Amino acid sequence: MISPETGAIRVLQDAQDPLLVRACRGEPVETTPIWLMRQAGRYLPEYRRVRAQVDFLTLCRTPDLAVEVTLQPIRRFGFDGAILFSDILMPVEAMGLEVEFNPAPEVNPPVRTESDVKALRRPDPTRALGFVLETIRLLRKELPPSVTLLGFAGAPFTMAAYMVEGEVSKEFVRLKSLMYREPLVFHALMEKLSLVVSDYLSAQIEAGVQVVQLFDTWSGQLGPRDYREFVLPHVRRIVELVKTPEVPFILFGNGTGSLLELMAEAGPDVVSLDWRTSMKEARRRLGPRMPLQGNLDPTVLYAPADIIRSRAREILEDVGPDTPHIFNLGHGVTPETPIEGVAELVHFVHEEGRRLREQASGAIAVGTKEAERE
Ligand code: CP3
Question: Is there an atom of ligand 1 within 6 Å of 88 CB?
């Protein structure tokens, strides 16, 4: 039972917190919030114009430019969230390795042995990644209060994938060989990364991000048994070190349909899933209270408007109007995505999210009246 005072405080908080933050907390919301992973990038002509002037790393390291490209999709589409423009590999540089983008990332020298792991630094983010924190502070001044600023980091397994392989890989043979042949060295690397990532996310929160997302793009390479042994303890540690009641924590996985329960066990506020698992199944497996994020196949944005709408509607219906949901893709926007598809999706999700809620509350009101008559 909510006392009148707590009720009033809740109303005050709600008036201050943007839609996306409230949805991540599982509070009732007026419509479904939406933002997209990789919403800034090459599919936008205004992004390509900036990139024609500077390389990707310079863009990430120059706060004024990083602010500009973060804001580009906000101006165009009316997203509820702005994700800090950066890359999951920025802390890897700060740990002492060389990172290049051609455009796929390359890391030099790769991390393969115990002494390689020992040589990695645990940087002070306020020094080594100060440009990211400056970008965050500038963004909080620029963004309207209704738009939530999301910070992010790569999850340890995904960062380790680039650090051990040295490049994008298909089978992750070197990473997984290290895991199976030298588990102590593997865990030492994961532990170090967990501390670096926790320091980094906490510094982002300190600088002003309102939600954080941990990107575990590659942990879907593991089955549940290995995820539990090699990944879960490290992700759980990060959640414990970083999560605050004010700043919700989203855990994203790709190809992680068989790992959803284990991801939830790590303790995030929100589980973000790819399109290979239906929202209906995710909802059934994780229960009605767990805030879920996702999960449109990014290539549906290449389809005609009516297909985009019907696929988005299916997701909204599957997730249920009275259960917490943040609309997103199942993975990032791809570089050739038609801009009209994105605009259509954002408009539709806001309209339909509102309509489904009104319909549901109408049905409840009718149900109550009928119950009163009986
Ligand atoms: O809009 C946003 O989502 C914020 C910016 C962002 C980027 N990368 C910008 C980027 C975020 C959140 C990331 C995360 C990231 N980076 C992940 C996790 C999410 C995912 O996509 O799985 C991963 C695995 C990386 C590593 C990475 N960075 C790759 C594999 C690539 C090259 C891929 C490609 O597009 O060719 C990058 C480069 C990168 N990161 C670009 C952008 C906009 C393209 C750089 C360019 O302009 O040339």
Answer: yes
